[in-house]
Automatic annotation (TrEMBL):
CDD domains: CuRO_1_CuNIR (cd11020), CuRO_2_CuNIR (cd04208). Homotrimer. Its EC number is 1.7.2.1. It comes from the Bacteria. Its cofactor is Cu(+); Cu(2+). It catalyses: nitric oxide + Fe(III)-[cytochrome c] + H2O = Fe(II)-[cytochrome c] + nitrite + 2 H(+). The keyword Iron applies. Belongs to the multicopper oxidase family. The keyword rRNA-binding does not apply. This is Copper-containing nitrite reductase. Residues 346-434 form the Cytochrome c domain. It holds the Pfam family Cytochrom_C.
Length: 456
């Protein structure tokens, strides 16, 4: 083991601050180069992939993605890679910020219980991915061995109010999405590029509920976005925001006014925007089944005063009657042209379709919800304890904290444009499925539930 690193005397020595996602180290204020010492430890650990689902992750620093490293252009880095004695595999590191063979991989092959050291000079500024490059490389990456290193330009990055670290990855488990227990890696699915999970920051729900990112109205936000892959390209998007700047592929040129930015496997992007309007903003891979069905969904909560000029909220909801017929406000209790159920069976049938069209994207096909984002309707204690309250939720939408089956949710259910008849049908369907208590909801009950709900 070589431990003496030729330290040019003129450079001050700095120990790198390393952070776990979604946090990033403080911006660099130095106006000169330094000798930066990075100490990164590889561990193989069982952690949560999703509610009730565990996975043996291989990590740079204990979690996925690996520690965020922040240095300055022209810094000389003394890089230490330690592999924990409990590891079962050798590992190494390829940093895309390195100019040199294998990005460091050739110099860092490290057996369990060993440490390797190499030096490199950061020649180019930018946001770079690092990853393990030990064979089988795909498997090491698929198990979570990636992270980001930011090489700030000499002049630094423009100041912003909030900075966060978000990194996407695709995971291949023997069981399907949500199948419980400790899930082994599935090589066949990985070869087919058919992940069971696509997530931000290593697990389903890592950026939702209590883990949501936060900002205040008026603040500027910078997201350091990476994609570890191993296979998928991310169409990174924040629902309801426009990126003022995107440093595409982590480089030095800012594209302006971007809706969705492509983040390649083994690539990165820096996105910046101002939080102008309060509310919940959902981070997604806009290959949208990945977001709502495989986990690639996070949330940014923006708090502060509303500005109705920027965003009014819904101001009108009317019946639309073309061909010159008079347009009228929709009365709360009138059912427009929708089919009217004449029996409970018919209600169940109509409700099933309504559920698929209006609810399933969030609450999922079997009403199981998505942990941390969308509460379950299956065996929901919240629903079964008070059906009228649940009718109110569907009729008016819901914001604020609720507890469902012991889990807290603090999110937004939108107000849906459903008639009393439709609410009766979909609620009857929900109540008679997935272990719920049964019964029939009639349009009359929907009307009276709404009357009570709006009176407090
Ligand atoms: Cu590895």
């Amino acid at each position: 083991m070589t431990d003496k690193a030729a330290t040019p005397l003129e450079l001050p020595i700095v120990k790198a601050e390393l952070t776990d996602a979604p946090l990033v180290p403080a911006p660099i204020t130095r106006k000169h180069a330094a000798k930066v010492v990075v100490q990164l430890e590889v561990t193989e650990v069982v952690k949560k992939m999703a509610d009730g689902v565990d996975y043996t992750f291989w990590t740079f620093g204990g979690s996925v993605p690996g520690k965020f490293i922040r240095i300055r252009q022209h810094d000389e880095v003394e890089f230490h890679l330690m592999n924990h004695p409990d590891s079962k595999n050798p590992h190494n590191i390829d940093l895309h910020a390195v100019t040199g063979p294998g990005g460091g991989a050739a110099s860092t092959f490290t057996a369990p219980g060993h440490e390797t050291v190499f030096n490199f000079k950061a020649l180019n500024p930018g946001l770079y991915v690092y990853h393990c490059a030990t064979a089988p490389v795909g498997m090491h990456i698929a198990n979570g061995m990636y992270g980001l290193i930011m090489v700030e330009p000499e002049e630094g990055l423009p100041a912003v109010d909030k900075e966060y670290y978000v990194m996407q990855g695709d995971f291949y488990t023997k069981g399907a999405f949500g199948a419980p227990g400790l899930q082994p890696f599935d090589m066949e699915k990985a070869l087919d590029e058919n992940p069971s999970y696509v997530v931000f920051n290593g697990s389903v729900g890592s950026l939702t509920g209590d883990n949501a990112l936060t900002a205040k109205v008026g603040e500027t936000v910078r997201l350091f976005v990476g994609n570890g892959g191993p296979n998928l390209i991310s169409s990174f998007h924040v629902i309801g925001e426009i990126f003022d700047n995107v440093y595409a592929e982590g480089g030095s040129t800012a594209n302006k006014n971007i809706q969705t930015t492509l983040v390649p496997a083994g690539g990165a992007a820096i996105t910046e925007f101002k939080a102008d309007v309060p509310g919940n903003y959902v981070l997604v891979d806009h290959s949208i089944f990945r977001a709502f069905n495989k986990g690639a969904l996070g949330m940014l909560k923006v708090e502060g005063a509303e500005d109705k000029k920027l965003y009014s909220g819904q101001i009108v909801q009317k019946i639309y009657q073309p061909e010159g017929s008079t347009v009228q406000e929709m009365p709360m209790s009138k059912t427009p042209l929708a089919a009217v159920a004449s029996s409970k069976d018919m209600r169940l049938e109509l409700g099933k379709t309504l559920y698929a069209q209006n609810c399933q994207a969030c609450h999922q096909a079997e009403g199981q919800g998505i942990k941390g984002a969308f509460p379950p309707l299956a065996k929901s204690d919240y629903l079964n304890a008070d059906v009228n309250r649940a009718i109110g939720v569907v009729a008016h939408g819901l914001e604020g904290q609720i507890k469902v089956n012991g889990e807290l949710y603090n999110s937004t259910m939108p107000k849906l444009k459903l008639s009393d008849e439709e609410i009766a049908n979909v609620m009857t369907y929900v109540l008679n499925n997935w272990g719920n208590k049964g019964g029939e909801v009639t349009p009359a009950q929907v009307r009276s539930a709404q009357a009570t709900a709006s009176s407090h």
